[in-house]
Write a structure and sequence with these properties.
There is one protein chain. This protein is α/β, with parallel strands linked by helices. 37% of the residues lie in helices and 24% in strands. The chain has a seven-stranded mixed beta sheet with strand order 3-2-1-4-5-7-6, with helices on both faces. Helix 5 runs parallel beside helix 6. The radius of gyration is 15 Å and the shape is globular. It binds S-adenosylmethionine (SAM). S-adenosylmethionine binds next to helix 2.
Length: 176
């Protein structure tokens, strides 16, 4: 809802973890026919699924896919030009669980997202603390977002309480 509100027709958006392409297609819909989405995933299987899904949604021409790590984000995007960057951390649903996002790379990619976002741009990160590696990564990412708050970003978290296991939560940062 908040990402949708942040995006306008003609904007540039980034999906840093394209996976099966649901978020990529969502971003492509938000930026409209005049906008563009750049999507990253390291897995060929993910890029293949995402291309099919985006194509079925009718958005193929708005999306540029890179089968590369999101640590290459700045190689493809001009600083200060992006309206929203989305991360959906963890592993590919239905895929190999050992191939998941990893804190050191995630932190590098967040730094790059900070650079490419324009003032007022939105950083959106879904973390998965319910499994061991995900919990460590979620903690590191939370610290990073807190440090952005000290640099003047507006930072917010949205999470469920009272769940059996730690539930996925959303971190949002708005660039000053
Ligand atoms: C939870 S899934 C993303 C789900 C996706 N947003 C969707 O709508 O279906 C996380 C994805 O991150 C990808 N990934 C892991 N490390 C990555 C990296 N360094 N750069 C880009 N993608 C990465 C995985 O391959 C996996 O497909």
């Amino acid at each position: 809802m908040l990402v949708k509100e942040a995006l306008r027709e003609g904007d540039l958006a980034i999906d840093a973890t394209s996976g099966n392409g649901h978020d990529t297609a969502f971003l492509a819909e938000c930026v409209g026919a005049g906008g563009r989405v750049i999507a990253f995933d390291i897995q060929p299987e993910a890029i293949r699924h995402a291309r099919i899904h985006v194509g079925e949604c009718g958005f193929a021409e708005r999306v540029e896919f890179h089968q590369q790590s999101h640590t290459n984000l700045t190689a493809h995007v001009t600083p200060g030009t992006v309206a929203a960057v989305m991360f959906n951390l963890g592993y590919l649903p239905g895929g190999e669980h050992s191939i998941a996002t990893k804190s050191p790379e995630t932190l590098i990619a967040i730094e790059q997202a900070v650079e490419v976002l324009k003032p007022g741009g939105l950083l959106s990160i879904v973390c998965y603390p319910g499994h061991t590696a995900g919990a460590g990564e979620a903690a590191v990412v939370e610290d990073k977002l807190s440090s952005l708050a000290h640099d003047g970003w507006r930072v917010a978290a949205y999470e469920m309480r009272g769940t059996f296991r730690p539930a996925p939560f959303l971190l949002l940062g708005c660039k000053p």
